[in-house]
Amino acid sequence: CIDNVFGKDGWYFSVVLHDCVVLLFNSEDKTRAEALVKQIYNETVRYVPAGLRVAISEKGSLESLPEMYKKTREAVKICPSLRDSTTITLIDASIVQNYNRIIRQVIQYVNENLSDSSLSLNYIASKILYLNPDYLGKLFKKECGIKFSDYLMKLRMEKAKQLLITAGDLKMYEVARRVGFGDNVAYFGQVFRKYTGLLPSEYRTKYGQT
User: In this structure, are residues 89 and 83 in contact, taking their beta carbons and an 8 Å threshold?
Assistant: First the structure.
């Protein structure tokens, strides 16, 4: 599905690939491109309140489009939406690609084991990577600009929002388990409400039909 949208100052075309919308910009000004993406995001987020992540690649030629898409998609996969209700975190794919190898291992492990209620920085450091937890914590904060505990919680909350909207047949205890809260449904509800301002059931009622 390709749609010609804007001319020189906008994007050249948009195409839907799997679960992504790809916009190809014809712009020499990255700041301008970022502004346009943020505008699109702000218009879209009201209809897609969960799991929406936005990334922008570095500039490249038409021949490099497949590789640019690959790198940008990888960046979107490993970076959770770290926005609050009023702002957008625009993922810079070129920066993500330069993450330290250790940090990429951490992110990959978290994504693959999000449902594990025992998941922690200490566990990953000592049992998976055999590193000093303090060192790993400082390295993660330096590379990602956020503490690991905040990263993990935000990732879990965004995953919970997505499940509440797209998997209406799941019980609340099942959602809690899938995002790493085990059988502690009450605590899951408290954390979710603090993060979104709504209880999980209220969130599903409000956004479940979008």
Answer: yes
The residues pairing with 13 across neighbouring beta strands, listed in sequence order, are 24
Q: What's the pLDDT at 4?
A: 41
Residue from 23, 51, 21 nearest 36 by CA: 23
Contact between 3 and 14 (Cβ < 8 Å): yes
pLDDT tens digits for 20-46? 777 777 666 667 767 777 777 777 766
pLDDT digits (tens, 9 = 90+) for 185-202: 999 999 999 999 999 999
Residue 181: count other Cβ atoms within 10 Å of its Cβ. 21
Residue-by-residue DSSP string for 30-41: HHHHHHHHHHHH
Quick one: pLDDT at residue 120? 95
Q: For 62-140, list the strands marked E by DSSP.
A: 90-92
Reported for 178-186, long-range contacts at CB under 8 A and 24+ positions apart, including other chains, are: 178/114, 178/115, 179/114, 179/115, 180/114, 180/115, 180/116, 180/117, 180/119, 180/152, 180/156, 181/117, 181/156, 182/117, 184/117
What contacts 178, CB < 8 A, 6 or more positions away?
114, 115, 159, 160, 163, 170
Place of tokens 């956004």: 207
Collapsed DSSP state (helix, strand, coil) of residue 25: strand
Q: According to the model, what pLDDT value does residue 3 have?
A: 40
**Structure token pair of residue 30:** 């990255």
| Chain position carrying tokens 């790198």 | 71
